Amino acid sequence: MVAGILIGVLLSARHSRDDSSSRGFRCSTRRRSSRSVRYSYLRWASGVASKIAIIFLTAVFPIIINTVTGLTTTDRNLIEAARSFGATPMQIQFKVRVPGALPFIIAGLRLGVARALVGVVVAELFGARAGLGFLILTPRRISTRPRCSSVC
After folding, report:
1. Which of 15, 40, 123, 130 registers the highest number of CB atoms within 10 A of its CB?
2. Angle at which helices 98-126 and 2-14 pack, to 10 degrees?
3. What is the average pLDDT across 116-120?
């Protein structure tokens, strides 16, 4: 969660509100689904580290997007008032923009937690060697219909 907020703050410092590269970033984040989790799981070795990576990747993007949106939609009058009082760019970032973006950041955290819970379930299903995820997917892999319907 902290990583998503920090990445969002760094991205918002470089991008303006109408930047086309942020639009491309937002479109690329929509590709994260359970289908892409399968391929990313195949890239990493099975274990706890791969499950943590899958959960992180599913949760961090809404946090980044909402943080960047909140920081770039700060009222220009507030920024100009801070500049007129002699605030440095760092002070403007952390004393004007971040407090103004807190509702967006909290909304991103809520979305990230919800997606992290979905990521936990998906990572457990695709990365299980024992337990409930293993019992659900094993009969489907070997196509035994009666056992599959009794477990599912």
Report:
1. 123
2. 130
3. 86
**pLDDT, position 149:** 54
The string of pLDDT tens digits covering residues 76-85 is 999 999 999 9
Nearest to 104 by CA among 3, 4, 28: 4
Pair 78, 20: CB distance under 8 Å: no
**Residue span of the structural domain in which 118 resides:** 2-151
CATH number at residue 47: 1.10.3720.10
- As a whole number, the mean pLDDT across the chain is 77
Q: How many domains does the chain fold into?
A: 1
Separation in Å, CA 103 to CA 67, 70, 142: 9, 8, 48
Burial class (CB in 10 A: 0-12, 13-18, 19+), 42: exposed
Q: What is the pLDDT of residue 123?
A: 77
CB 48, CB 124: distance < 8 Å: no
